[in-house]
Amino acid sequence: MNIYPFLINEFYTKYKTNDTPLRIFFAPGRVNIIGEHIDYNGGPVMPAGISMGIYVIARLRSDNEIHLKSSLHKKEIILKTEDTFTFYNYDGWTNYPKGVFQFLKNAGYKIGGVDLLVYSDLPGGAGLSSSAAVELAFAYTMMQLFNSDKTMPLEKLAVLCQQVENKFVGVNCGIMDQFASAMAKKDHAIVLQCDTLAYEYIPMNLREYSLVIMNTNKQRSLAGSEFNKRREECELALQIINEAHQYKYLCDADLEDIDIIKDELIKKRAKHVISEKQRVLATKKYFEQGDLVKVGEQLNESHQSLKVDFEVSCIELDTIVDLAQNHPACIGSRMTGAGFGGCAIALVATHQYPNFKLEISEKYKLTTNLEPSFYKCAISDGAHEIKY
Q: Hey, is 118 helix, strand or coil?
């Protein structure tokens, strides 16, 4: 499907038609193959951009006003470029672009008068990083429209958008989501070392398998979840371990280091973080060796750790992952994203996918009374302008 005529039509239903040309920008959502809740602990992660994401359709104005509209929400606001932008709960989704505009201004970059329409084909609250994609899409748009003479490198743009999430929106996330949305590469996963931002691309040659995203349709709000609490628990674990060591990040520690932790809950949190780091490195090796069965085993182990040691799963995620793991077409499955609802992934034999989808859907609905959604997404490039 060619989405661009649809996007242009959507723009002209929201704004009056004139002769000023439209430009379209895109930032992908991301799926994290493995490496959950270790980005803010200084460890390696393995995200990939997906072909669903956030589109921003832009048209320059002759004044100093920024008009923000969405094809999916009624909330619309008008800003003036000289304003100081502030977070307000009642501004809803528009807080994300507002934060981006303010942080770009703080960093010495220009913003200008423009009509903006945002369109998303990402399911909200599903753990596919729609918030990071929104931030990157608007940041990239402003860079290309008003700062083409001194464009910020994408790596730095990702860091700026993480700061928006941390300091403006108030979610204490790590760098993974924004980095993946900025730096993703078609048909590759990124192995990102979160403490240094060193990265490399790993070809995702899945051969006879497909990466399937399974949406539980159990909504979760990252800001309203226990995400910040888990981060505090990890910081406490590091503090205790450092009574005998000098580690900068929890991911620097080894599994035997957690024996010093007497609180069993804090010990479990540390166990997940350190073992998940090891699973990322093992998964990288198995992808390079072409051993997809071993990759699947790492996915299964990751979910068990997230369920038992980090306790960020839920009945819906456990149900759909268990059903997938026990289906003969599947060689590995786990939750992806921060947890408490949202999505899981599975490596599924491509020729058996229709049967897999049908059987998992029926059994999942029978157990949870929810209708799941399935996506076989292509692995996408990061933030870019669409030439149509």
A: strand
Conformation bin of residue 183: beta by default, left when phi > 0, alpha when psi is -120 to 50? alpha
Question: What pLDDT is recorded for position 126?
Answer: 75
pTM of the model: 0.90
Q: Which amino acids are annotated catalytic? A: 177
Q: Which of 73, 99, 272 is nearest to 171 (CA)?
A: 99
- Helix (H) / strand (E) element for 54: namely strand 44-60
- Residue 74: name the closest of 88, 100, 93, 87 by CA: 93
Chain segment 321-355, per-residue pLDDT in tens? 999 999 999 999 999 988 888 999 999 999 999 99
Is the CB of residue 141 less than 8 Å from the CB of residue 68?
A: no
Q: Please report the domains of the chain, with CATH numbers, ordered by start residue.
A: 4-202+380-386 (3.30.230.10), 205-375 (3.30.70.890)
- Rounded CA-CA distance 355/371 in Å is 16
CB 161 within 8 A of CB 171: no
